[in-house]
Amino acid sequence: MLPALVVLIVVLSVTTDGLLTSSNIVNVLSQSTVVAIAAIGATFVILTGGIDLSIGSVIGASGVAGAWLITSVHSVAAGIVFALLVGAGIGVAVGLLVAKLPVVPFAVTLAGLYVVSGGSTLLSHGRTIAPVPAGFINFSIDGPGGVPYAVWMTLGLYVIAQIALTRTAWGRRVLLLGAKEEVARINGVSIGRVKTSVYAVAGLFSGLAGVVLTSELAGAGASMGSPLLLNVVGGVVLGGTSLFGGRGSLLRTAIGVLFLGFLSNGMSLLGLASYDQQMVTGALILLAASADGLVRWVRPRTATA
Amino acid sequence: MRRYPVARCVAVAAMATLALAACGPTSESGSGVGSGKGHGTIGVSFDLLNAVRTSEKSAIERAAASAGYKVVFDVADQDAQKQASQIQDLIQTRRVDALIVIAQDGKQIASSISLAKARHVPFVTIDRAVADEQDVSFQITGDPHADGELAADEFIAAARTKPLKVLELVGALTDQNAIGRRDGFGNTLKGHADLTVVSQVPTDWDPSQALDGTSNALQKNPGINAIFVPSDFLLPSVQSALSTAKRLAPVGDTKHVFLVTIDGDQNGCKAIRGKTLDADIATRVDQFGTEAVQAITTTLAAEVVVPKTVRSAGVTLDQANFATVKARVWGCGD
Amino acid sequence: MKPATRVRDALLAGARQPLLLVLLVLLLALSVSYGDFASTANFRNIAVQASPLTIAAVGATYVIITAGIDLSVGSMLFLAAAIESSHALAGVPAGLVFLTVTAAGVGMGLVNGIAVTATRVPALVVTLATLQVFRGAGGHITGQQNITLAANLRGIGTAAALGVPAPVWLAAGAAVGGGLLFSRTVFGRYLQAVGSHRDAAVHAGLPVRRVTAGAYALAGLLTALASLTQTGRLGAVQPSIGQGYELTVVTAVVLGGTSLFGGRGSITGTVLGALVLTTAQTGLVFSGASPYVFDIVRGAVLLVAVLAAAMRWRDLARAVGPTVLRPARSRSSRRKPAKKW
Known about the structure:
The structure holds 3 protein chains of 3 kinds. By secondary structure, chain A is an all-alpha fold. Helices cover 77% and strands 0% of the residues of chain A. Chain B is elongated. Chain C is built from 15 helices and 4 strands. A two-stranded antiparallel ribbon of chain C has the order 1-4. In chain C, strands 2-3 form a two-stranded antiparallel sheet. In chain C, a hairpin with a 2-residue loop joins strand 2 (160-161) and strand 3. Chain C starts with a helix and ends with a helix. Chain B: One of its GO terms (molecular function) is carbohydrate binding. Chain B: Belongs to the bacterial solute-binding protein 2 family. Chain B: This is Monosaccharide ABC transporter substrate-binding protein, CUT2 family.
């Protein structure tokens, strides 16, 4: 997927003005942080062969929870902790349901999406909770070298998550579970516990994404996360992490998320109509995801011919 | 996924080049970056694109063209984060000289407003009110409360001839415009004995819910003889429900259900002309465009930002004044 | 198991739907709680309101039975409506417009179907991508405007015959036709074979790809029909049409007991699922509850329904795997020789 990202950037930098200026690159990075953070959790879930459709609603719910505490007790730290707890708590609940019940993750997390988004809209009366302190907002604006703290934090999280995936026993279990569930079971891996853990991790990262989004937007609303689900899943899949589980990495996810970030930025710089942007994005996701499948499909025929 | 990076790469490159090449001409008009002042560029960011927004867009474009500005245009598809990103791109990468924004969320637009302030880019908001009114250069919005009152006045006038049992549709309960229209309408109706709101139907601004809700309400209260529709785009749903319930009749017919809407778009104007709608409270979309561009010119020239908020109440277009008022209603143009 | 036996089982599973009981209890409870709920006209309203969902959900049932998923339903609904109201078809006789739109629906379904069968990309990703493509295309055609529909195109949503509204006729037709296609035809048997034992189906020489693509094409056709019905009822096309509809459709299908693992499902169940969802929504309107409560209720009902279904079919050992996302395992075996070249 890296070559595709390079090609995209080259094409866009030729066709638009200002794509490769340092300020624009920082903008794309900071615009991608929320999706990138949520995509870490989604990558772990997808590596086990699962899917989490509740990510967008959890981002909204935890953002609202955090902003509510920040504005009511005036403690940013308490608000952040609460948001993360809400995210992780929902994640654990979803994970337990996925692990314990003989129901596909798709259905469990679809139900989770409805309950969480309906619940958070109801509890917040559909209102946006604002304002939050300037220091908290600065987290996603200022930072060393002109790059926001949020971006540095995201980079750090990717390094940690990649190490957790490849260098820890838990990471190996996640990969093994996704690749060959039976083998994992025979090797004594507690399937239920690993499954619960990945959804819990996804919830935690969604919670963090909710916090960063609240900082970015200077306030939180229950529906703010729902448009992000497409980009989160799209970024992971575009990066090349297999939806069948067992194959993928955080590096790939990072590339996929950046691809979508640059694409959206570039199309906006080009002045494409919003509906045309949708068409191009969808077509590129499909094309990028299917390119090698198409080649395999065509090759045997040409080879035998 | 790993096996044919070259193929994937070529395919994506081909696709991307095609897509971008196809859009070449648009990019020409959009790349007025850094052109001199006086003929600056206005960046426009809308929350979404629909019939009302299209009219607002062309009003801005007309006003900008006559004042000598270029316009670059973004739509956020109802995604607050996307809007923040697009405004950041407009300010920092496309270096627009001023912004006209319809906020997806009146509070969450705060970050964009402070970014613009820090970069000394005039920030004008239209249509939907924002929370930090003092930090924007200029704001012109409709006055949903007043529009609701104007609509109520039509009902009060109609109730002089016969008592009205009103069905009230409500927009999204999370939308301040919907709430303003509801409150303005409800407060004005209070104390009029010959007017009773027998049913309130939440629609979440969804035509299907408006249709189903109206059908259910007509079913529950067959005595309903007036409906308040808080936006023109829900009118087809309401008329469809009326027609299914065999209650659709032209203005003047004894079976006619009294209908008032807000917005004043093409369909609303056509419906009044066709005598299927009694009154439409038309928002001043043209005024949004001209005053927003005017404010930008003033702000850019004076360099002193004087925050100002204008609330512009709508104009009532009804069967009696159609001929004289239609020229001021945006939906009756072209 | 002989196909005939499996068909009978599927029918029995449909007849044994606990959902029928749920629907009856729901109707009874609402009738008792709200005096004006139990009237012919209100039941007629519910039936009309459930019709487009029923039609689209019957189509989605075929896709889900093949262990696939179609997230592009809402966008197809919008694109079909956009085509129906486009300038190019202005003044064209209604019949021809309907034909064009249904053909376009088949075309959209085929795009999904071919992309799913010709590539290794899971249906979830394919249809997530086409969700954007179709909605973007619809926006391109309409320019995001509200377009009032010509009067002759509205009849399909508002007319009535023999006292029964046209949408209900269409939904009934889709349900009965869809049910017969599923239980009485070779295609229906193949669908179940492909969904439950793809490898075996391939080895048995069944046209697995064509059957799968056919399921998506049928879903496209029925979605176009649902779109014609719904826009006919609404009398206008708006850019927000169909947003989030895919989740409602999947919920109706899953509620009806069709397994997301594929292979098992029932059209009767889907119809009941659509009716339960619509009745619940109408009931909430009657109760005056906040519209957001509906989301919570829908989520809870979905989870309980899926759970109930899974409990009954627990003997399926596969019930713990993420099979919904798995493509044809057979294809890898078929492709293996190719790698050597």
